[in-house]
Amino acid sequence: MEWIAVGRVTKPHGLKGELKFHPFVSDTSLLKTIRHGRLAMDDAPREWTIESVRGAGIPLIIKFQHCNTVDQARELAGCTLEVQDTDFPGLAEGEYYWFQILNLRVFDEDGRFYGTVEEIIETGSNDVYVVKDGDKELLLPMIDSVIKKIDLDERTLIFHKVEGLVEDHPV
């Protein structure tokens, strides 16, 4: 089990303990089913039951159990909300959550190491994985002709070098 940062609570909303919530994820529907999380408070995470997450735009409105006043909500403002990775619904084979892709070690089909996935850029048509090794950077489009294998157990990603994708990337 791993705790995944999914957003930040920023300030109270109304008088009943609700807070404005700015998610780090683009698919906010994932957050509306999660009922347990933790917030970093005074340098020590504290677990909370989530009563509700609502709204169609950003920010969303979040309500925690036992947070019923604007003063209680104000104490939580600025905290990052983390949820357990096991609380996310399962995905179809070949589909992954962002937190499963980040920090994968990246190799080409010949076994040459290129770095780790440090960022994911959402382009609309397909994601692009930003792979870094020191000051070297490689952008890998998440398309079947390029990404050949993702092994979450081994924490690796294997890609096919296509012309123009990899310039001179010394070992």
Characterization of the model:
The chain has 171 residues and is mainly beta. 6% of the residues lie in helices and 47% in strands. It contains 2 helices and 12 strands. The longest helix is centred in the middle third of the chain and has 7 residues, at 70-76. The chain is elongated and about 60 Å long. The model has no long low-confidence stretch (mean pLDDT 89).
Indicate the low-confidence ranges by residue numbers: none
What is the count of helical runs? 2
What's the helical proportion of residues? under 10%
Mean pLDDT: 89
| Radius of gyration, CA atoms, in whole angstroms | 19 Å
Strand order of the largest sheet: 1-2-5-4-3-6
- What separation lies between the terminal Cα atoms? 34 Å
What's the total count of β strands? 12
Strand content: over 45%
User: What kind of sheet is the major sheet?
Assistant: 6 strands, antiparallel, barrel
Q: Secondary-structure element sequence?
A: EEEEEHEHEEEEEE
Class by alpha and beta content: mainly beta
Shape: elongated
